[in-house]
Amino acid sequence: MIRPTALLALSLSLLATAASARVCVDDDADRRVCLEQPAERIVALSPGATELLFDAGAGERLVGAVSYSDFPPAAKKLPRVGSYKRLDLEAILALKPDLVVAWISGNPGTQVDRLEDLGLTVYRGEPLRFTDVADTLERLAVLAGTEQAGNAAAARFRDGIGALRRRFADAAPVTVFYEVWEEPLMTVNGEHLISEAIRTCGGINVFADLHGLAPRVGTEAVIAANPEAIVAGGMGEDNPAWLEPWKRFPALTAVQRDNLFFVPPSTLQRPTPQMLEGTRQLCDHLERARARR
Fold first, then answer.
1. pLDDT value of residue 176
2. Domain residues for 111?
3. Helices 193-200 & 147-167, crossing angle to 10 degrees?
């Protein structure tokens, strides 16, 4: 026969164990996200979220991702649940995830809300600063129970960005037009994470004052701004074709000095630790622009 005091002690022990297994973080929508235990089945609703989860040490817990989730290579093997713009809710539910990682500005809000209505736990992410990338790695690692890997990845990212900031803190400014898309012609404003990369390298975004994170601009506006350097991503990791049309405008300073630079889009256009490599490449390009004065 179990004594009442022993039963009480056992009950308290079980409650303490359950409480210690519960994990909670605050997401970028300022909501508390809690799980009764670290997630074992995770679905990522953007290529960036997929990459962040792998970097946070949670790759083996991913069971689904959206199209274009191609890094690291293991991500290509994950079952697809639609695109980030059009989610396949049935496919997501069929995977029975205990955590869904959504993209605030990219995913359809009504579909993400529907997933919550159906009982799924959703973490909403929107890294807008380098510090947000590192913080997101740590938060996702908490939710996946992979803190050691996530904390290490966050520390490497912070240290790398810090080193670049120190190196280029006193660099001569270089005016920059960053082309994020060709048709329609689009750039980034000063609030965009790519603008932080430009500033880190001692660059000045000529369209920093525009409204919207990725505003449309006209060719005439670029010509009027006359940037010293034009930097573009492109339709592929080794396809600098978007730079070619600018050669039709020889009066542009960037064209005159051959300051037309390509950076693989996955290294600057996804809010992940790959931005460290993309920012390094960007800084090297702007150093070339300084040397060509």
1. 98
2. 19-159
3. 50
